[in-house]
Amino acid sequence: MKIIKDSISFPNRMLKSPVGRLIARPWFDSCVLYFLKNWFFPLSRLWAAARAAEGSVDKFIEQVPLAPPSKKQRRQIAKALHYFDRARLKAFSTEQLWRDYFFGDNEVAGERLPIVEEMRLDNRTAYNMTRKLFMPLKRLVKTSVRVSPPTPDEVAARYGSAGEKLNALFALPEKLPEVEVSRPLPTAQGCNYWIRFPSPSTEMNDLVYARVYEPKGSKNPPTLIFGHGICVESDHYHQLLDEVSALTRMGVRVIKPEAPWHGRRVLPGHFGGEQLLSAVPVSMIEFMAAQLKEWATIINWSRGTSRGPVAVGGSSLGAQTAKFIAVRAQSWPQHLKPQGLFIAAHCAHISETALEGSLSDIWNIGDTMKARGWHRDLEQVWLDRLDPWGKPCIAGRNIVSVTGMRDSVTPAASAHRQMDFWDVPAENRFIYNRGHFTIPLGIINNAAPLEKLAAILQNELL
Known about the structure:
- By secondary structure, the chain is an alpha/beta fold.
- 47% of the residues lie in helices and 12% in strands.
- It has helices at 10-16, 18-23, 26-53, 57-63, 71-103, 112-128, 152-159, 166-170, 246-249, 274-278, 282-305, 317-328, 350-356, 358-363, 366-371, 376-384, 412-421, 438-445, 448-461, and strands spanning 180-181, 185-187, 190-198, 207-215, 223-227, 253-257, 310-315, 340-344, 399-404, 429-432.
């Protein structure tokens, strides 16, 4: 069977070179923020509207929404929708073929698996890149996020005026779902495969997918469950950056779950991650409640497939998720409690990112929230209920923290105070003069934080 070349992607190779040290600096964070504000989010809103339009120009205009366009702009929209739908059909057809080959009941020749995976990435990347078709229209976009928040009264009725119903929402189900494993795909470092299972969250009511990177020659490897940031869909692009890929070469199994409303789980008429912003704070509550149950399922599966220790972690939103789980897991059964934590680009309070961080200026959902009866203090009250208060189930010596002093998305100061409270030793804290987006680039250039985690997990095996 053909072995796919996943050892080090081109972007990762570049960042491991001396060039990487030049890129992983604060100037690059400013470039990323400019790109997100002026290109990615406006084009993503247009792209999401095209998903809902089904080829209709009028429906597209309504879904963005756009001011009435000129005749020339209507022709541009019609042309863009034509090519968009072609790319979408190719991507969806290939995804179905991929599911049949990797999860289907019929026997499949192993030689075809890397071909189908390559086709999936080719067509999905091309579909994602159809955002560029809408470039002539991006200046017409008034808001980059389609927002439809509930009122404060609706949230209080749902969760209790003091959030007293949240504990029941965050509780694990009596029985975790069964996990289905795909056919394996040999790689230079071992093999890749996917797992999937029905989300234990009734609010999600969908299938959870996670990609597993299994190291070569290890019967009972330690495991890291690693969560991604908002709007990150790494399993649907060719050659994306991967800040934790080196762990597989260190003998650690890495599992990357697809978060709610991302990738295969995106809601109709939205782009990946948009729903998380569309109905704050309910969307954030539902997201975290689902992640608790879904990651517990993956921890349970990890215990059943390896005797090695299990760590949780992530970058940005994934790090906030991992910290929330590490604290809530204090009350979980022993076999579901993670033994390590790896958190990059994080802060102590979600409200710091949602209400104060530089991304909140880009999303610009404040006016709509205000119109629905929200004000900043009330928003913070509800978001604070999603913070990882208290101590985690993990000893401070088994926690690795990576922060950037120039991070304007997840401010590092509160993270440092939290690490003090959690008794994380100085040698486990990696503090750089970087911003939010150059933190993962720096990890690729210098794998010291990953080496520390690998050493912690190997020590847990002894």
